[in-house]
Design goal:
alpha+beta, Phosphatase 2c, domain 1, 5-stranded antiparallel beta sheet, 28% helix
Length: 305
């Protein structure tokens, strides 16, 4: 072996899994059922525009890896080229539904398609309409699968495809990037201040001081409440928008523990998509759910806070 190769180090060395506190059990993941080949164990994506840098990752949790279940989380990101707006959707298929992994994918796809269409029309952003469009997509799946327009399609869609959904946009704006998003169910969104390492939850949390004010009952798509829970914010130069499922949000908590510190450190500047997936797949005892995270930084890749 030449000296130059030796100096570069061994690039075949294993990439050790990150542990937080007490690690979970280590084992080789088992394959999901034979018809779940469309739902890989891990997905990641990332790119930059003149205004934003985006990363996303979704990893199968230890429970699903052990019990041969597919990853039921999904994330989709896109850019509306005419306006430079980043469009995103994150979904967490409800474990009790028969094919919730498909519901999560279709809800994300429908939400992103609808958001891009509304932006192209130039009208006001109707987040309620986006939520209803995603719910209708699940009902259409039922009608297609049954080969009929079943009047009970909403009930059947809940049994087969129930999923949470967080979707919205980050739009360039003279007063700072403008964030608009909504959620159905218990997935979440946060602003991470890279200068302080602190997190601000955009929706109610299941942990911390406000926990007693938030119901733990998940009412997912295809149900859409009369008043869709929506938020609008402006990003400061030091903030990163994070959108994730409860597989990320539950161990994060208020962000003042070791998981919060881990992500504050690794998200100070945009990591590679593969690196984000690796960090998201940290090992911590009792936290074995699928994890999905979308992160949006203002400015070009590598910009410091």
């Amino acid at each position: 072996m030449s000296p130059s190769v030796l100096a570069a180090g061994d690039d075949t060395a294993p990439w050790p899994r990150i542990t937080v506190d007490t690690p979970g059990a280590e084992f080789e993941p088992r394959p999901p059922g034979q018809f779940a080949f469309d739902f890989p164990d891990t997905e990641c994506d990332g790119w930059s525009t003149p205004d934003f840098t985006v990363r996303s990752a979704s990893v199968r949790g230890a429970s699903h890896r052990f019990y041969r279940k597919p990853r039921q989380d999904c994330a989709r990101i896109a850019v509306h080229e005419a306006s430079g707006t980043v469009v995103f959707a994150v979904a967490d298929g409800v474990s009790g539904a028969t094919d919730s992994q498909l519901g999560a994918v279709e809800a994300c796809r429908a939400a992103v398609e609808r958001l891009l269409h509304v932006l192209s029309q130039g009208g006001p952003l109707d987040l309620d309409g986006v939520a209803h469009h995603a719910a209708e997509r699940l009902r259409q799946l039922v009608a297609w699968r049954l080969g009929s327009t079943d009047p009970q399609s909403s009930a059947v869609a809940a049994q087969w495809y129930a999923t949470t959904l967080v979707a919205g946009i980050v739009q360039p704006d003279s007063s700072g990037p403008h964030v608009q998003l909504f959620r159905i169910g218990d997935s979440g969104a946060w602003l991470l201040d890279r200068a302080t390492g602190s997190y601000h939850a955009l929706f109610g949390s299941k942990t911390g001081a406000a926990a007693d004010l938030v119901s733990t009952a998940v009412v997912p798509l295809p149900h859409v409440p009369e008043a869709v829970e929506a938020v609008a914010e402006h990003l400061t130069p030091s903030e990163v928008l994070l959108v994730g499922t409860d597989g990320f949000g539950d161990p994060l908590g208020d962000g003042d523990g070791r998981v919060g510190a881990l992500f504050a450190r690794h998200l100070a500047v945009p990591p590679s998509p593969l690196r984000l997936a690796h960090v998201l797949d940290f090992s911590r005892e009792t936290f074995d759910d699928d994890r999905t995270l979308v992160a949006v930084w203002p400015g070009p890749a590598g910009a410091a806070p």
